[in-house]
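pasting for ref. prot 1 ->
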Amino acid sequence: MQILSLRQLATRSALLLSLGLGSAACDKAINVEPSNSISSDTGFTTKEDAAAGLLGVYDALQLTDYYGVGFPTISDLISGDVAHVGTFTTTLGLIAQNQAQPDNVQIQNTWDAIYATINRANYLIQESEKITDPAFPKLTTQAQARAIRALSYMNLVGLWGGSPQGYGYSGGLGVPLRLVPTVAIGESTAPIARASEAEVAAAIRADLDFAIENLATGVGNRVTKNAALALRARFELRMRNYADALKFASQVPASAGFATAALTATTTPDAIWQLTYSATDTNLYAFWWYTTGGRNELNPGVNIAAAHPAGDKRLAVNVVTGGLTQKYTRTTTRDDPFNVIRYAEVVLTIAEASAQTGNLVNAAAQLNIIRSRAGLAPTTATTADALVRDILLQRRLELAYEGNYWFDLRRTNMVQTALPTYNQTFRNLFPLPNREIQLANGVLTQNPSY
């Protein structure tokens, strides 16, 4: 079923009272409950309430400062694959220079949007337990919410956690781990310390395992088992658990005709989970990229065009004369879809995990699927290191402007190699927003050296 006008439909949900960590610590509650919503005192009582609540979770995921444009964009700006050319110099501009400070408004807004999404998911998970209607699909509802919560914690740790050399190392930093909703000022909204990276990782795995067990296979604009498997594979690859990454990626059903499909102007036919937008539920991707119909805040990064091998069909998609891209073009309707995860990423995860676990034949075979679609000859790499280098390049070009490259640089400890001007390794982690630190009264600690 296609999700349309999420912001309209989601007003039934009490999840709209979601509070970010900082705002939850304020001295007074803010009345953000719309007049036709469900009171948090009443909670959910019917399956229709829960359905509206689930729409509210998806709607939060599509917030402007989250997947509506903010989160993937700041990830691509700091990686250098997107260049900042607009007027948001004190926010996007500083992120693009890897000089962001804890008072950066965009960093605060994205942090808030992610935690708001988590809070809506927490509320739905909690309240759905109270519904006894046998027609209510409780497990699949909770599974979708838990997958979105897992993705959100993956994103939080991706930007603000781990270690300067990557993820999954001893002593890695986590983020505040909230698994129950904050619905009113009080004990549930009190500041909490950061969990360790390992503790957050355990919560992510538990959520995704629940989703995998309770969702059906398929693709679309809702979380499916395919998407949950692909996200678990992404997470294990990020954590350098290559055998597990291979195990989960290999369970994702192949996208029909993917290996022989012609490369199209938009690389969406292989989307496993795609966020859809509409005239009443828009995003700002094309608006930030284009001058006509937009404000042209973004251009392709200075090095991404040259990174494409000769004959690469993706160059015409990723880099268009005049500082544009063909991935996001709908400046009038502002309803470009956004790919949360694609089958191309799964193929490249299988390739990389195979190379890292010694199966070079399979690594090359999977890599060549991507190369062939892009119009490139089969790889000439014969060693694991050479294969991984090519796989990482293909990930950069295949998944361009989808918010992935920065996390590849971080997980492979290649930030300073790929971006030698980023010589302050502590900046491999984003700063926690100032407001969170100030309102926590010493409970929450800033990332080192900020």
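and prot 2 ->
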Amino acid sequence: MIPVMRPWFGPEEEAAVQEVIASGWVAQGPRVAEFEREFAAFVQAGHGVALSSCTTALHLALVLAGVGPGDEVVVPSLSFIATANAVRYTGATPVFADVDPATANLTAKTVEAARTPRTRAAIVVDQAGVPADLDEIRAAHPELALVEDAACAAGATYRGRPVGAGAELCAWSFHPRKLLTTGEGGMLTLGDAEGAARARRLREHGMSVSAADRHATGSTAPERYTEVGFNYRMTDLQAAVGLVQLRRLPELIARRRALAARYQELLAEVPGIGTVTDPDYGTTNYQSFWITLPGDFPMDRDALLAFLAGRGVSARRGIMAAHLEPAYADLPTPDLPATEWLTRNSLILPLFHTMTEAEQDQVVAAVRAAAEG
């Protein structure tokens, strides 16, 4: 079975983990701090705060933005459900907005259609690694706090710079489906030093001095807890893997973009099939390679998934629509035509660093056979 995604690991990651184990310090410590510095430098951000997941990064970003009960936050429904869930963790209400069908991202117009007098912030997702036009949204809505959900976008570019460069608050994922993985884990990048210091306290129960800092300095002074915090820490074991993965990232993206270009060329021969591409203002890292089906395709998306599986190809449904899930049935039903069309008519094809041309040919042949009925 050709998998949708396969992480790219080598002996370097194994050696990095062994080194951390030999050091005797495996929890949050010096490797986490090093990973924070290197990742922030890579995306041209002022500060990085390593966390247990992108979901926790989104939660802390909203806390830093002052979002709380009574507030509303505009989010795309077309996103993994964690985007909306993070809003509810603060006691605020997510308000679902539609997306541009070409990029699957929010736009200034779709944010405008969803906002109300209670709107405090918006979470702008770089869906599947395709950068959103953050400058356009910021210019149209300067009074809103903007949180960039770059869970899938490490290594993508926006207006000639890395995605996340200059973002006020930007959340990242290192889940195994992402290009850069630490198994589980995430990062919050931001430009504000005080905000970064507060986020580091909040990730460790609100502790005034981290356990790693007390150990490093030999301090015996008791820590203080000035506000209610969380347990959102990353371990040095994870960060050691992340440091190696970060150095692999440029090579990984180059390979994925080459495979994506080949997919686009081969699938252009299948009538009506749409493929994800770069927007005019940036480049995607092709974290996922999705296609859309025309209205006259011989089978629906779910039938196509089963057909592909029968031909040895593991594909996945396209991006979910959170507003259609039972968890959000209590909210008013929004009118999101682009979102609902995309979630019904898109699917994700296999794409990974070690994918061979023969495997890619097998995927395309299966799609072509389905198109021919």
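The CA atoms of residues 118 and 336 lie 20 Å apart.
The chain has two domains: 11-247, 249-371.
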